[in-house]
Structure formats: structure tokens, C-alpha cells
Specification:
Helix content: 10-25%
Structural class: mainly beta
Strand content: 35-45%
Shape: elongated
Number of domains: 2
CATH class of the largest domain: Alpha Beta
Distance between the termini: 30 Å
Number of helices: 3
Largest sheet: 5 strands, antiparallel
Radius of gyration: 18 Å
Bound molecules: zinc ion
CATH topology of the largest domain: Alpha-Beta Plaits
Number of strands: 9
Length: about 140
């Protein structure tokens, strides 16, 4: 399947097959007034299959959130029909308040004034550690 190239906008490429819809929703692309395309299960030389999102507009992307959802993807910024910039999202070093610590006795779960806080300890395995109780959490299968 061929989709018309875009003059100016964003192509989120190499999304892990099956995650495109989730990212499409997270970016709230359902309710926009400019053209957007979600392609699913496109043939990929690198990964076999991939999802792709094309946005015919420049929108602000939360690269850290994208990295948390799928750190395989690549964001292409398109200007005048060509890729002007490629951005690879990287996982944030710190995450605050996005999800709870898995240790029920952790102070962040017991004290309503303490919000959860994690520091990245392993990028490959997407592992973070709670700064209060040192419980490790893998974000591999977490959904945001
Ligand atoms: Zn904790």
C-alpha cells in the first residue's frame, strides 16, 4: 500500500506492530482537523512488520512518553517533502507520579503526600527503581 507523501508534517515510523493504535489514541489524533493516517502491519525490512502514523501537520510530541510506549519508533520531521530531521525517543531518566510503586509498603503508596518517583537503571530492559524503597519495576509490559 502506498500513501501519498506529505509536504510538511510528522511520520512516526517503525512503531512496533500492534502499538500504532495505542499511540494514535494517546496523541489524540482522532479528533484533529488535519489529515492523519494510521497504517498497521506494514512490511518492514528491519522488524518484519511495523505500524506507521503520518500526520500532515507539525504537532508537539512528548518524546519521553513515546519512548515509554515504544522505544523502537523513530519520528521523522518532514519539511518540503523531505525528512528534515530524525528523532529517536529516549527513555526519561526520572519518572514522577506516572504509575505507582509495586511495593504495597512503600511510603509512596502509604503517604498521600508522597508521589511515586523512579530512576532509570536499565535502558534495554526498561527497568526503573523506586527512589524510596528501591523496588525495581520493568516497563516492558506496562501500558500508558
Ligand atoms: Zn517504592
Amino acid at each position: 500500500m502506498k500513501v501519498k507523501a506529505i509536504d510538511r508534517g510528522i511520520v512516526i515510523d517503525h512503531i512496533t506492530a500492534g502499538k500504532g493504535l495505542e499511540i494514535f489514541r494517546k496523541l489524540k489524533l482522532k479528533n484533529v482537523h488535519f489529515p492523519v493516517v494510521l497504517l498497521m502491519n506494514v512490511a518492514s525490512t528491519r522488524y518484519g512488520k511495523k505500524d506507521v502514523i503520518k500526520v500532515e501537520n507539525r504537532i508537539d510530541l512528548d518524546m519521553e512518553m513515546l519512548a515509554l510506549m515504544d522505544h523502537q519508533l523513530i519520528v521523522n520531521i518532514i519539511e518540503n517533502n523531505v525528512v528534515a530531521e530524525k528523532r529517536k525517543p529516549s527513555l526519561p531518566r526520572h519518572i514522577k507520579g506516572l504509575f505507582n510503586c509495586e511495593n504495597p509498603r512503600c511510603i509512596s503508596n502509604e503517604d498521600p503526600y508522597v508521589s511515586s518517583s523512579f530512576v532509570r537503571i536499565d535502558t534495554e530492559k526498561k527497568t526503573y527503581q523506586c527512589i524510596y524503597c528501591e523496588e525495581n519495576v520493568s516497563l516492558m509490559d506496562k501500558r500508558f
